Amino acid sequence: MTTQLIHYVDEMNSPLGTLTIVATEKGVCHIHFGELTKCSVSLKAWLKKQGRKGEVIRCKETLQPICEQLEDYFAGKRDRFDVPLDLCGTEFQKKVWNTLQEIEYGQTKSYKEIAQQIGAPKAVRAIGGANNQNPVPIIIPCHRVIGSNGNMVGYGGGLDKKELLLSLEGAIEKIS
């Protein structure tokens, strides 16, 4: 099923570099590590893969609330986000993403713990796959998921970004 929506897009500077943020009238649907000019091809591919059609309009005003919340997060003034989300994914992915939002700021959980929490103890690899497909990193804190041995493993934006986020939250010293 194809959804016809207007997608608002803008960039913001962050300690992780430039973030490109995409939202619809329903909510934030995608955050990409990188500048819009560098991610426009992958953004179009992502929209197509999600069955989304419609205009993509650059609009700072529409994205101002999420940019402000992200700025507050990076400044250490916010530990939760309360912007609406417009997520596309399988029911399993959405279940994982909802569970990730329950991981407290400054805390971590292993892929195994997430699998057990959602009642699918053998789905550790699938948890990793859902993490990798998280369309709104930072807001859905997939960076807070670590290996069962306590090591940082995998992050779509790169382990350097994961380390920075966990350090910002004071969780890095808890990781092996």
TrEMBL record:
Record EC number: 2.1.1.63
InterPro entries: MethylDNA_cys_MeTrfase_AS, MethylDNA_cys_MeTrfase_DNA-bd, MethylDNA_cys_MeTrfase_DNAb, MethylG_MeTrfase_N, MGMT, MGMT_N_sf, WH-like_DNA-bd_sf
Descriptive protein name: Methylated-DNA--protein-cysteine methyltransferase
UniProt similarity note: Belongs to the MGMT family.
UniProt catalytic activity: a 4-O-methyl-thymidine in DNA + L-cysteinyl-[protein] = a thymidine in DNA + S-methyl-L-cysteinyl-[protein]; a 6-O-methyl-2'-deoxyguanosine in DNA + L-cysteinyl-[protein] = S-methyl-L-cysteinyl-[protein] + a 2'-deoxyguanosine in DNA
Catalytic residues, chain numbering: 142 (nucleophile)
This protein's GO CC annotations: cytoplasm
Keywords: Cytoplasm, DNA damage, DNA repair, Methyltransferase, Transferase
